Amino acid sequence: MDLTENIANISLHEEQTAKKRNDYIDWQEYFMAVAFLAAKRSKDPKTQVGACIVNNDNKIVGIGYNGMPIGCNDDDFPWGKNTPSPLDSKYLYVCHAEMNAILNKNSADVKDCTIYVGLFPCNECAKMIIQSGIKKVVYLSDKNAHRPEYIASKKMFNASNIIYKQYKPRISKIEINFDIDWDLVSPTK
Ligand SMILES: Nc1ccn([C@H]2C[C@H](O)[C@@H](COP(=O)(O)O)O2)c(=O)n1
Ligand SMILES: [Zn+2]
């Protein structure tokens, strides 16, 4: 067997025994990362929240992030927090990520689905989650837990048997790199 034949045989063997990669992200990481990617669309200068709704077949059926309602120009409506008049702060206007994800659904309904969201849902979103039939909430941060709106959310979730579970990341960062050299990843023949 000459050298060229030998090299060809080795690479054929490598192809035939190739194993699947094992550093892929799991479903939870994927759905929470989709929620975090959606949050990057938010114009809120202080807090960007994303939400991703998933059905029992692991299919994404809704995505949303916090933003102004359709028609309410996000250059004209306020983004401040602590203004003398509530009419001049964002709170009376902004649609929360969970609300947008539910309203943006691309399936007939979101019954029995799970919602992945960066921040624990407020009382208004909790009501929408319950009424829409979503059965599980996976959240990353509960930084507002002491506030009445969030205590109310938990009261309602408990009464309505909605499961809520904090997501504990296995990895702290998922990188998206558009600068891939595809020829290095899979050389063309
Ligand atoms: N579960 C949540 C909680 C909050 N948001 C939105 C609403 C505001 O745009 C922002 C919170 O503003 P902050 O008081 O932190 O300046 O986040 C949401 O979409 N979902
Ligand atoms: Zn909310």
Average pLDDT figure: 95
Give the termini separation: 23 Å
CATH topology description of the domain at 27-67 and 96-169: Cytidine Deaminase, domain 2
The helix/strand order is HHEEHEHEHEH
Unreliable residue runs:
none
| Ligand list | the ligand Nc1ccn([C@H]2C[C@H](O)[C@@H](COP(=O)(O)O)O2)c(=O)n1, zinc ion
Secondary structure: number of strands: 5
Largest sheet: 5 strands, mixed
The CATH architecture name of the domain at 27-67 and 96-169 reads 3-Layer(aba) Sandwich
Q: Beta-strand level of the residues, as a percent range?
A: 5-15%
How many helical stretches?
A: 6
Strand line-up across the major sheet: 2-1-3-4-5
Tell me the name of the CATH homologous superfamily of the domain at 27-67 and 96-169.
Answer: Cytidine Deaminase, domain 2
Shape: elongated
DSSP helix fraction: 25-40%
Helix- and strand-based class? alpha/beta
Report the top-level CATH class of the domain at 27-67 and 96-169.
Alpha Beta
Radius of gyration: 22 Å
